């Protein structure tokens, strides 16, 4: 019997030892998770009293029950929804649930709103790829593990992300507008982003940190429930590459967005004295032939530009190109020229007074000015437009002149066929005699900038 008792005690002791080790491992894991989030949240198993204190700290009774979830669906480009009271982010079903205070009691009606936080709501095809976010009021809220003292701003980095133009037009510029409109330029909010890709975070890390001082929360990868004092879902857009001053709290414009770019990428520029030169620098945007709209006589165009008086630099941007290096190159230049396309978005890096020449192929004439001309002028650039003739288009080898012009007019609705022919198949062969006159005019303006600003 003694041996039996000894064995039983030994077995019991081993069980307690094993249980203790398991609890220790769990504690280590929770501590590790806590360290990962310590920069922006408190992670702990709170008691009801502690959570009640946090809830009361962020709770407001100022809004009637019917307005707990506020949505604005009146705009062409975007929808927004918000809850201006404490919420739980239930990560498993992409839902933000209103947290009720203990003295409010259970609500009899449940309010549910759904929104896709990407500012191209008129475009059904791309919006079908955007994850829907749900906001709920009136339902019992689950407990949360991560408690934040800063509100959440939710938006999607999906859609056309990967295209440099859309990364600014559908993402960064709307984020700037929302940052100034909803948060008054205060960095005290947390970015919660869906369809997030690591290359995008790495590429725009410096710029994103100019908006929020907190680490980004990856919508899909987050497994723990989070509590926020409030949440806003969706970004505000004013249209194509534009910021409308009368819609902004302090009449901000696209120039203010450029100031943000300058403060982000200009602050890291190391200024090294350079030998004095008398030739203004011209950046020639070079496109790969596989995407269409390439300049077939690019080298000849470069020679003509150099003979005009420019020091011409070929610039072929890639998806993972350093924004810092791109900024340094273009911001220090006096002129930029390229064929209509996403890469022309680099005009945002040009200094006011610099020359920007857009080469417009057959087809996108109606949008060329909207995409780049109008915002370039708003930035204070010397904008010029070189519209190619039919003979300068590579499509003349496949289609008649009449077919080209009439086809562009008839199908200029950005259909799949239109984009295939006019945007992907078309390359350009610049008339070097004709373009020389544009370059001469650009040179005079660039020299003027060079004399005043270096």
Automatic annotation (TrEMBL):
Name this polypeptide is given: Glycosyltransferase
Gene Ontology CC annotation, any one: Golgi membrane
Top-rank lineage group of the source organism: Eukaryota
Segments traversing the membrane: 12-30
InterPro entries for the chain: Glyco_transf_61_cat, Glycosyltransferase_61
Domain Glycosyltransferase 61 catalytic: from-to ranges: 265-357
Lineage: Eukaryota, Viridiplantae, Streptophyta, Embryophyta, Tracheophyta
Keywords recorded for this protein, A-Z: Glycoprotein, Glycosyltransferase, Membrane, Transferase, Transmembrane, Transmembrane helix
Primary location class: Golgi
Localization per Swiss-Prot or TrEMBL: Golgi apparatus membrane
Record organism: Lithospermum erythrorhizon
């Amino acid at each position: 019997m003694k041996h039996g008792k000894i064995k039983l005690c030994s077995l019991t002791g081993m069980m307690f030892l094993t249980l203790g080790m398991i609890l220790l491992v769990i504690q280590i894991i929770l501590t590790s998770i806590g360290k990962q989030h310590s920069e922006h949240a408190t992670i702990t198993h709170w008691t009801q009293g502690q959570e009640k204190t946090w809830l009361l700290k962020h709770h407001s009774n100022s809004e009637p029950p019917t307005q707990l979830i506020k949505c604005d669906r009146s705009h062409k480009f975007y929808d927004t929804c918000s809850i201006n009271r404490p919420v739980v982010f239930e990560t498993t079903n992409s839902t933000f649930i209103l947290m009720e205070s203990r003295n409010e009691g259970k609500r009899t009606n449940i309010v549910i709103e759904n929104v896709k936080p990407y500012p191209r709501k008129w475009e059904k095809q791309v919006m079908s790829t955007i994850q829907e976010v749900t906001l709920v009021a009136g339902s019992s809220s689950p407990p949360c593990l991560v408690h934040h003292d800063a509100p959440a701003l939710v938006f999607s980095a999906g859609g056309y992300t990967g295209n440099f133009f859309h990364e600014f037009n559908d993402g960064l510029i709307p984020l700037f507008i929302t940052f100034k409109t909803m948060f008054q330029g205060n960095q005290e909010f947390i970015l919660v982003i869906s369809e997030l890709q690591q290359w995008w975070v790495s590429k725009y890390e410096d710029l994103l940190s100019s908006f929020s001082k907190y680490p980004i929360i990856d919508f899909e990868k987050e497994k723990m429930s989070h509590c926020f004092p409030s949440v806003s879902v969706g970004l505000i857009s004013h249209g194509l590459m534009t910021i409308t001053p009368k819609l902004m709290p302090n009449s901000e414009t696209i120039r203010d967005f450029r100031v943000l770019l300058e403060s982000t990428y200009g602050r890291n520029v190391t200024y090294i004295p350079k030998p004095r030169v008398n030739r203004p620098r011209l950046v020639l945007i070079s496109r790969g032939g596989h995407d269409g709209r390439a300049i077939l006589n690019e080298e000849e165009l470069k020679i003509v530009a150099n003979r005009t008086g420019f020091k011409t630099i070929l610039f072929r941007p890639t998806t993972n190109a350093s924004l810092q290096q791109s900024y340094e190159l273009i911001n220090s230049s006096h002129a930029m020229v390229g064929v209509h396309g996403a890469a022309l978005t680099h005009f945002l890096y040009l200094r006011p007074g610099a020359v920007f020449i857009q080469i417009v192929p057959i087809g996108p004439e109606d949008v060329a000015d909207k995409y780049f001309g109008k915002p370039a002028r708003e930035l204070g650039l010397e904008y010029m437009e070189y519209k190619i003739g039919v003979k300068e288009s590579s499509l003349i080898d496949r289609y008649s002149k009449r077919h080209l012009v009439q086809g562009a007019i008839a199908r200029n609705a950005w259909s799949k066929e239109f984009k295939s022919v006019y945007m992907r198949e078309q390359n350009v062969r610049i008339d070097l005699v004709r373009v020389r006159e544009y370059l001469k005019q650009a040179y005079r303006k660039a020299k003027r900038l060079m004399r005043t600003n270096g």
